[in-house]
Description:
By secondary structure, the protein is an alpha+beta fold. It contains 33 helices and 24 strands. A six-stranded mixed beta sheet has the order 16-17-15-14-18-19, covered by helices on one side. Strands 23-22-21-20-24 form a five-stranded antiparallel beta sheet. Strands 10-11-13-12 form a four-stranded antiparallel beta sheet.
Amino acid sequence: METYADWLRARGDDELRALLSARPELLAPVPADLTALAARAATPAAVSRALDRLDRFTLAVLEALLVLPSPTGPDALATALGATAEQAANALGTLRRFGLAWGDGAPAAAPGVRQSLPHPAGLGPPVREVFAGYPAERLTDLVADLDGEAPRGFADSGRLLARLSELLTDPASLIDDAGPEARAALDQLAWGPPVGRVADARRPVRLDTATTPIERLLARGLLAAEDDRTVTLPREVALHLRGGRLFRDVPAEPPPLTPAAEPRPEDVVVRAAAGEAAGAVRLIEELLERWGLEPPPVLRSGGLAVRDLRAAATLLDVPEWKAALLVEVAYAAGLLTRSGDLDGEWLPTPAYDLWLMRDTAGRWTELARGWLKSDRAAGLAGDRDDRDRLINALSEAMVRSSAPTTRRAVLEVLASADRGVVVGEDALRARLAWLRPRHGGPVRDRLVGWTLREAAALGLTGFGELVPFGRDLLAGDDPEPALEKYLPEPVDEILVQADLTAVAPGPLVTDLARELALAADVESTGGATVYRFTPESIRRALDAGRTAADVTDLLTRHSATPLPQPLVYLIDDVARRHGHLRVGALSSYVRTDSPATLDEILADRRAAPLRLHRLAPTVLASGLQRADLLDGLRAMGLAPVAEAPGGGVIVTRPDAQRADPPPTAEIVRLRPDDRTDASMISAAVRALRAGDEASLHGAEHARQAPAGEPPRSPAMATVERLRGAVERGGRVWIGYLDQQGQASSRIVEPVRVEGGFLTGYDATRAAVHRFALHRITGVSELDDAS
């Protein structure tokens, strides 16, 4: 008899590639041969993941295969499901492609499927199976009560089960005889699940001793006791209650995507989304710039404190949910991490500086990819967990394994809608319930709502419609060209006004934006950003090491108009007083060249908490720490600076801090598309075929490497030759060092060169292998005939 492995072995390479594309988890790692692939495909975890990818109709066809008598063809399936033969045949084709149905004639469920679907179509086992655990005495009593007389002759369990199955084929009279209360109990189990809980389910009951509705059902075989507390409805009884139907309603086509709003012109939709995309990039840059200067602490339990999240929302002028989203996206994109395990701070990473060097479209692409692939649900920030503990942003409690698949599923539904159709949330949930029936529940419903809200905030959708660059991102293509067309060019000019404000008519170039954020405060955002210059903001720039000339030159270079006198006076006035006082540590001291200034400080009642006393005409000492003394003097309206022991000025506000990710802090770093690509699948199919041949004909089937010493070549030339072989799909001869430093020759068909590794099909080992580039001694090209 043909086995499942034999059936896989008889498939063509295209069919095997389709199977591995549909179920890429079967390739981790690549099985040794097709027998091993068949065994892995039948494991409960692999079958469950495959079932999770089936739509409602295809899953119903698979369940029908388990319920209907064999052989079952498309016509019988179509009749049972109320569909057309073509629809049933298409569903069977999908099941065969997933390896969940097999056989070249009548289809059968693959190994492992029945165990993963214990109650197909919500039905329990047939009478022969569900009563198989009954002892012969109980079966004899049951058949005697239903037949009206004891079985004649020797009655073994097989004959008793056969007779009981005949008696329950048409249970109408038995159900009527059990009474309306018993019928109501059966109706609750009729459409599944077919199991219920009762006390003392295995107690012996007969027709003449049954008193309760459950006892009357047990005495008539309408319920079967699985154990002491579980009863099961036999399949024949359930089908009778259903009127012979397997399912209530299983549409073969997905529910329609009914529009929820009037369509808008495409240009308006895309421009609105592009504006949101640019805004998200700007907000994350503004937040990380501030946190690079004033990083918030990491909670002992991990995550970001509520007060720090609220402060971020106030800084960015956004709701708290959006602040949590921006923080989580920055973390997912690898731009933000914690500085250490204990008493750490949330700081930008060195990758943030590289991110700043990209244009706006490139920055958005990194953020959107991080969001799409992240397993963190930003919408959970501020919620309570099962133990009524607060869920903080950036904490481990934000992780939800179903988040990335739900995001992708939502966006794929939006992508399937026609242009101009704004899909309503209810219609979206109905479509998802049909596409992925095993992933339902309140968690998915919340994730769907969050995904729609977050996609709009990040600019993937405009007015509820997925835009072209969002479609490119979803398909794994480069979204930057489609986005760049709708983004305004960064400007390097501002309009400085006499009321001490500056207007940026668009997004600023990075250097100007950073310097302006240091010397001015954002007053309002929108199509244009308004900055206001204040004594505190100018002092902030001076504290960071800028001079009055630096600030004036910056504004002069980038202002479209001459600098107004009030602003020049403000800068000069703050700079003239800045550093007039010097604060050091004795614990701390105040020094100035003007004794009269110290007289004024000592005479001021506000200086009493500073605990000052005069050491010399130009020096005051304090018992406070230097930072506290600086804050106290500034609160009095003065502008002191910190002084080093040698008399130099200490820059108290560094431009930025950065934190390399510690080993225990995981940063989500994902490839643009983590799905297994076609080249890897093709290499895996070759390895499976070769493994099969090797298992049949011995290891000598593996290709022998050329004779002679392994090739040697310079490191850069090695990498370039490997990349060239990947592009043209050729084979190469490489030398490879093992962990002991022994060189060996390999014939490899390269598939991918990245991250310091070469991945490809090793013909000398008949397997897909991953080679460390630093261990490859050299590369020599081979022609197709070698």
